[in-house]
Design brief:
The protein is α+β, with helices and mostly antiparallel strands. It is built from 15 helices and 17 strands. The strands form three sheets. It has a nine-stranded mixed β-sheet with strand order 1-2-5-6-7-8-9-10-11, with helices on one face. It has a six-stranded antiparallel β-sheet with strand order 12-3-4-15-16-17. A two-stranded antiparallel sheet has the order 13-14. The structure holds zinc ion.
Length: about 475
């Protein structure tokens, strides 16, 4: 009898599973989408179709990850900016949404619908606020200044990156690399590889977070030959609430740009100053690279067929540094300046030898140019702020769990087939243990619900379908 009961249960479960699968298969919106098993921590998804369909596929296939990302980001934002999540939802609806164009409105709504269809309770305003999480601190800082109020909002100093071509690279073609700096609790979740074939615009591959229509840390390659990355401009001040959200412009440029001019035009049009970056881009068709330093008042586009551009959160244009930041370009102990000096050493020492493998080495580099020795800390290209008694103020206090969280690199040949290499966690190989860190530094106990271990995973190749 018992055996019969087990068989019946198994049969019923099988039937239920078949019905669910048939329902999924019959949902035409999911027909062209797929999700692969996790590989070295990364989740690869293929999304294809109209804006609404791409959004729905994204929401449905990554529903559990979207729930987890939303919980983590809202936990961090409410703590850091001392505002409840409802505040960001309201700003998303009333300040940002009016400046989001129809294509991305449909995709954002699709994400909310797809996630809801997979059992995640969230709505459109959660999705829009989540997409803007990197630019809200710029708004907060600007808003506090308008009203002469103190603020806890500080804009993060994200990332180390370079792009090189011509006599600097081994084959004379473009090589690009980037590591993402953020809090470890959010960085551990920056583990999606999006392979997107939109109905309009170019096919593209980019890294990202579940729920975001843009990469966020911005590393991507499109089928028109554009290779794109950035690092933020440290201590930037300025925001235009009437502008187009940065997340919309960044996504649009990834999807639609087919030249450096296109890229610059899309990023500048309606610039709201949010998440102000120095963009490092390449057009593999012309073998040209560029740096677009996108301030709100000062915008500089430099380009080259033979050379390199590096980024480590330092402002380039002195006028921009003076008028739009609180950054001290002359202080060599500043993380941005120390890493800038290291990039220049590496570019010089490796001239004519830079390839994708070199990019991987650079992104795991631990030479502190201020101390003049190997010492992983807030001043090294592979950032370990959690080891630093100085932290990276005003963004991260001493021993704060933040720094490099993942890295990506590609060369020209890889870009041709929409392929990139990526590593999750510190690419140098040093893992992070959450419980151990919180035990030693109890001031960060508030992170306990969301801070996870961040093991260092090997570099892995991902190609578009
Ligand atoms: Zn490291």
């Amino acid at each position: 009898m018992r055996r019969t009961a087990v068989v019946v249960v198994v049969l019923l479960l099988g039937l239920a599973f078949a019905l669910v699968s048939r329902e999924t298969q019959n949902d035409l919106r999911l027909k062209h989408a797929s999700r692969r098993a996790e590989q070295n921590g990364w989740i690869w998804v293929h999304l294809e179709g109209s804006p609404a369909d791409i959004g729905y596929q994204h929401g449905y296939l990554l529903a559990p990850e979207i729930r987890d990302t939303l919980e983590t980001v809202s936990h961090e934002m409410t703590h850091e900016e001392k505002k409840d999540w409802q505040f960001f939802r309201e700003r998303a609806q009333n300040m940002l949404w009016p400046h989001v164009e129809a294509e991305y409105r449909a995709e954002l709504q699709g994400i909310a619908d797809g996630a809801a269809a997979h059992g995640v309770k969230l709505d459109l305003w959660d999705v829009v606020a989540l997409n803007a999480w990197l630019e809200f601190p710029y708004y907060d800082k600007w808003d506090a200044r308008q009203h002469d109020l103190p603020t806890t909002a500080s804009v993060a100093e994200h990332c180390s990156a370079f792009v090189a071509t011509g006599s600097y690279t081994k084959d004379g073609r473009v090589v690009i690399g980037h590591n993402n700096w953020t809090s470890y609790e959010t960085g551990e979740r920056w583990n999606i590889i999006f392979d997107i074939v939109p109905a309009q615009g170019n096919h593209f591959i980019m890294d990202g977070m579940a729920g975001l229509i843009h990469s966020g840390d911005d590393f991507g390659i499109n089928s028109a030959g554009m290779m794109i990355t950035e690092t933020t401009i440290s201590r930037f001040i300025g925001f235009d609430p009437g502008g187009i959200p940065e997340f919309v412009r960044a996504r649009k440029a990834m999807q639609y740009s087919a030249s450096i001019d296109d890229f610059a035009r899309i990023m500048k049009e309606g610039n709201n100053g949010g998440y102000a970056n120095d963009w490092l881009v390449a057009d593999r068709k012309t073998n040209e690279i560029a740096s677009l330093e996108l301030g709100l008042k000062n915008v500089t586009l430099d380009r080259s067929h033979d050379g390199f551009f590096v980024g480590s959160n330092f402002p380039i244009n002195e006028k921009l540094a003076k008028e739009e930041t609180e950054f001290d370009l002359k202080n060599p102990s500043e993380s941005g300046n120390a890493r800038h000096a290291r990039w220049l050493q590496l570019m010089d020492q490796n001239k004519g030898k830079i390839d994708e493998a070199a990019a991987e080495r650079f992104l795991g580099d631990h030479f502190d140019t201020f101390e003049k020795k190997i010492d992983p800390d807030e001043r090294t290209l592979c950032g370990h702020i959690d080891f630093s008694p100085r932290g990276s103020m005003p963004w991260v206090p001493p021993y704060g769990a933040a720094g490099a969280v993942q890295a990506k690199a590609a060369d020209d040949a890889m870009a041709q087939s929409l392929t990139l290499r990526a590593s999750l966690g510190h690419s140098c190989g040093l893992g992070f243990k959450a419980a151990q860190h919180l035990k030693k530094h109890s001031q960060f106990a508030w992170q306990r619900p969301v801070l996870r271990d961040m093991p260092a995973r090997p570099w892995t190749t991902f190609a578009a379908q």
